C-alpha cells in the first residue's frame, strides 16, 4: 500500500489558516480597554473578518521572499563598495539629491516602522494587524538598507554624517518631519489613510519610480537597488492602502465623510511635501529621465484618475484641490529650487544654477512656464554671480503653519503673485501658503497651532543663537563644507581631482 | 474612459520572462521602458499567469515570486496559486 501523499494547502487556505483565529475576545478585560485607539475617530467597523490582504502573504512566505531580496541587495551593495561605485556616477552634483533623500526620507521610514508596529498592536482586527506588522518590518528594513547603502557615499562626500540630528532640527527637514509627526499623532484609521493610501498608493510612485529610475540613469547602482528593493515592498503597502479605504467605506456609510476629509487633507499635504522630489528630479539629477510634470501626469492624473473613478462607486471623490495641485506641477520644482538657491548658506547640500543645456531642457519640458517666469530669474542670478554679487537671502522667511514650507508659492492662476492666507485662532493669527493648507489648519487648529516652526524657533532663541553660524552649529552643519554652492565646494574639488586622474590614466 | 491598470517591474533577468508572459497573455498591454524598470499598462484588466512564466523559465513559478521584481502597481489585486489579476471594480 502506497502511503497517502499529504495534500498541500492552496494559497487562500494557507492565508486563512495563518492569519485568522490568532486573536480572541477578551473576557476579564473589556475589548475597548485592550484596544483603546480604534474607535475615537468615529470610524464604524461592523465586521473585521471582511478584511483580506489580496497578496495573501503569510509570515512564512514573507520571511522567505524578504530574505531573498536582502541577499540580492547586499550582494549589489558589497560590489558597489568593492568596485568604488562612487567613481561611476554621472556627476558629483547628483550626490546632493541623495543627501536630501537620507536626511529627509530615511528617517520617515523609521517613523513608519514605529507607527506600523503600534498599529500591529492596536487594531482590533487580526487581518490588518498582520499586514501592519509586516509593513512595520518592511519600513525598518528600508531605513536600514538606505543607511547602509548611503554610508558608502558618506566616506567620500559631505553632508551625510549628521542625518538623524539634522532631520530633527534643520528648517527644510521640518517639512517631511512634521508631515509624519502629524500622521503618527493621529488615530489609526487616519494614519492608514495618510500613509498607506494618500502617500503610498497615490503619491509614492512619484518618488520611487521615476526618481529611482533616474538613479539608474545616473550610474548610481546602489541607490537604484535599494530603491527598487524597497519599492517591491511598496507594492504590498499600496494594496494595504487601497484595501483599507475600501474596507472603511464598505463597513458603514457614516465613514465616508470622515474618510473624504482625510483623503483631502493628506493628498494636499503629500503634494506639498513631494515638491522636494519635484526639485530633485528637475534640478538635481544631472541626467534626467522625465520632468516632474510628466511624472505627475502619469502617476497622478492618469493612475490617480483611474483609482478615483473606481472609488467613486463608494461616493468618494477626487481630493479637493487636485486641480490646483495639477496646475502647480508646472511651477513647484522651479519655485523650490529658487528657495534653496537663495538660502544655500543654510542648506545641508550644495546648490547651483542650471546650465544653458539644462535650461533648454526645462524650457522644452515646461513650455508654459519656464521661459516666461523662471528663466529670467535664473539668468539674473547668473549675471549677479558673474559680477561677484551672488544673491543670498539673509532674511528668515515666513513659513506656512501647516506645510512649514517658506511662503514662496504663487497664487493659482497668477504666477507673479505670492499666495497668502491667514486664520485667527484664540486671538493669534496664523499664516498659510494656500487654501489647502488653510483648510487643514481650520479643521484642526488645536493641533496645528502647536506646530514647531523652525523660523519662529530661531527667533525665540531656541536654535543655538542669533547668528547663522550659531544656528548651523546647532544643526551640526559644517559651514563652508556641507552648505553653499557646489562650485567651490570640497565635494567639487574631490570630484574634479578624480576626473583629472581618470584623464591622465586614459592618456 | 476605461480605467488603466498597470504593473511596474524591474528590467532585469529575473523579471524578463514575467514581462514576456504578461505581454503575451494580455494583447492590449503596452510596455513603457525606462532606465531600470518597465511599466506595463493595460485597459481594465491585466493577468500574470503562473503557467506562462513557468513555461518560459522551465520550472514551477509561484505567483508570489512577483514580490522579488515588482516595483509598483495600479488597480485592485487578486492573487491565487495560478494567477495574479489586476483590475478595477472589485
Task: Describe this structure as you would to a colleague.
The complex is a heterodimer of chains A (507) and B (90). Chain A is mainly alpha-helical. Chain A is built from 23 helices and four strands. A two-stranded antiparallel sheet of chain A has the order 1-2. In chain A, strands 3-4 form a two-stranded antiparallel ribbon. In chain A, a hairpin with a 2-residue loop joins strand 1 (410-411) and strand 2. In chain A, helix 4 crosses helix 7, helix 9 (188-208) runs parallel beside helix 10 (210-217) and helix 9 (188-208) crosses helix 14. The longest helix of chain A is centred in the middle third of the chain and has 31 residues, at 221-251. The model of chain A has no long low-confidence stretch (mean pLDDT 93). Chain B has 90 residues and is an alpha+beta fold. Helices cover 20% and strands 42% of the residues of chain B. Chain B contains two helices and seven strands. Chain B has helices at residues 16-25, 50-57, and strands at 4-10, 30-34, 37-43, 45-49, 70-74, 76-79, 83-87. Chain B has a four-stranded antiparallel sheet with strand order 2-3-1-5, covered by helices on one side. A three-stranded antiparallel sheet of chain B has the order 4-7-6. In chain B, strand 6 and strand 7 (83-87) form a beta hairpin. In chain B, helix 1 crosses helix 2. The longest helix of chain B has 10 residues, at 16-25. The two termini of chain B are 17 Å apart. The mean pLDDT of chain B is 92.
Amino acid at each position: 500500500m502506497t502511503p497517502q501523499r499529504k495534500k498541500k494547502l492552496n494559497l487562500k487556505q494557507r492565508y486563512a489558516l495563518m492569519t485568522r483565529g490568532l486573536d480572541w475576545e477578551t473576557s476579564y478585560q473589556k475589548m475597548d480597554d485592550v484596544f483603546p485607539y480604534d474607535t475615537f475617530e468615529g470610524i464604524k467597523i461592523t465586521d473585521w473578518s471582511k478584511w483580506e490582504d489580496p497578496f495573501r502573504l503569510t509570515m512564512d512566505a514573507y520571511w522567505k521572499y524578504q530574505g531573498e531580496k536582502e541577499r540580492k541587495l547586499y550582494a549589489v551593495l558589497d560590489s558597489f563598495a568593492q568596485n568604488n561605485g562612487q567613481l561611476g556616477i554621472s556627476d558629483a552634483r547628483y550626490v546632493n539629491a541623495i543627501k536630501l533623500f537620507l536626511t529627509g526620507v530615511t528617517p520617515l521610514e523609521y517613523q513608519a516602522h514605529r507607527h506600523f508596529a503600534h498599529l500591529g498592536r492596536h487594531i482590533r482586527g487580526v487581518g490588518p494587524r498582520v499586514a501592519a506588522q509586516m509593513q512595520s518590518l518592511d519600513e525598518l528594513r528600508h531605513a536600514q538598507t538606505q543607511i547602509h547603502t548611503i554610508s558608502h557615499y558618506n566616506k567620500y562626500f559631505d553632508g551625510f554624517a549628521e542625518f538623524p540630528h539634522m532631520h530633527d532640527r534643520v528648517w527644510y527637514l521640518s517639512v517631511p518631519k512634521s508631515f509624519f509627526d502629524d500622521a503618527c499623532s493621529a488615530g489609526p484609521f487616519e494614519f492608514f489613510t495618510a500613509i498607506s493610501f494618500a502617500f503610498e498608493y497615490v503619491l509614492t510612485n512619484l518618488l520611487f519610480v521615476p526618481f529611482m529610475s533616474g538613479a539608474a540613469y545616473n550610474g548610481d547602482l546602489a541607490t537604484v537597488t535599494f530603491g527598487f528593493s524597497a519599492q517591491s515592498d511598496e507594492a504590498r503597502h499600496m494594496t494595504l492602502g487601497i484595501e483599507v479605504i475600501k474596507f472603511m467605506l464598505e463597513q458603514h456609510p457614516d465613514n465616508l465623510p470622515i474618510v473624504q476629509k482625510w483623503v483631502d487633507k493628506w493628498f494636499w499635504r503629500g503634494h506639498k511635501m513631494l515638491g522636494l522630489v519635484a526639485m530633485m528630479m528637475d534640478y538635481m539629477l544631472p541626467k534626467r529621465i522625465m520632468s516632474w510634470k510628466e511624472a505627475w501626469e502619469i502617476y497622478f492624473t492618469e493612475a490617480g484618475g483611474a483609482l478615483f473613478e473606481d472609488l467613486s462607486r463608494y461616493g468618494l471623490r477626487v481630493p479637493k484641490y487636485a486641480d490646483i495641485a495639477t496646475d502647480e506641477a508646472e511651477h513647484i520644482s522651479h519655485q523650490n529650487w529658487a528657495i534653496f538657491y537663495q538660502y544655500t548658506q543654510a542648506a545641508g547640500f550644495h546648490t547651483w544654477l542650471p546650465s544653458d543645456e539644462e535650461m533648454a531642457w526645462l524650457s522644452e519640458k515646461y513650455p508654459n512656464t519656464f521661459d516666461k517666469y523662471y528663466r529670467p530669474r535664473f539668468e539674473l542670478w547668473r549675471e549677479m554671480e558673474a559680477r561677484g554679487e551672488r544673491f543670498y537671502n539673509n532674511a528668515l522667511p515666513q513659513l506656512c503653519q501647516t506645510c512649514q514650507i517658506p511662503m514662496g508659492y504663487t497664487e493659482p492662476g497668477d504666477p507673479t503673485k505670492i499666495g497668502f492666507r491667514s486664520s485667527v485662532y484664540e486671538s493669534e493669527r496664523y499664516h498659510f501658503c494656500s487654501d489647502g493648507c488653510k483648510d487643514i489648519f481650520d479643521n484642526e487648529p488645536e493641533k496645528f497651532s502647536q506646530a514647531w516652526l523652525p523660523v519662529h524657533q530661531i527667533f525665540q532663541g531656541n536654535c543655538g543663537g542669533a547668528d547663522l553660524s550659531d544656528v548651523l552649529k546647532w544643526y551640526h552643519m559644517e559651514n563652508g563644507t556641507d552648505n553653499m554652492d557646489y562650485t567651490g565646494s570640497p565635494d567639487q574639488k574631490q570630484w574634479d581631482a578624480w576626473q583629472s586622474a581618470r584623464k591622465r590614466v586614459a592618456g | 474612459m476605461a480605467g488603466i491598470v498597470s504593473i511596474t517591474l524591474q528590467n532585469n533577468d529575473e523579471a524578463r520572462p514575467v514581462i514576456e508572459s504578461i505581454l503575451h497573455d494580455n494583447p492590449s498591454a503596452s510596455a513603457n521602458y525606462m532606465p531600470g524598470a518597465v511599466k506595463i499598462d493595460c485597459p481594465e484588466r491585466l493577468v500574470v499567469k503562473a503557467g506562462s512564466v513557468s513555461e518560459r523559465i522551465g520550472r514551477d513559478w509561484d505567483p508570489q515570486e512577483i514580490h522579488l521584481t515588482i516595483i509598483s502597481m495600479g488597480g485592485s489585486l487578486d492573487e491565487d496559486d495560478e494567477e495574479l489579476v489586476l483590475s478595477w471594480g472589485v
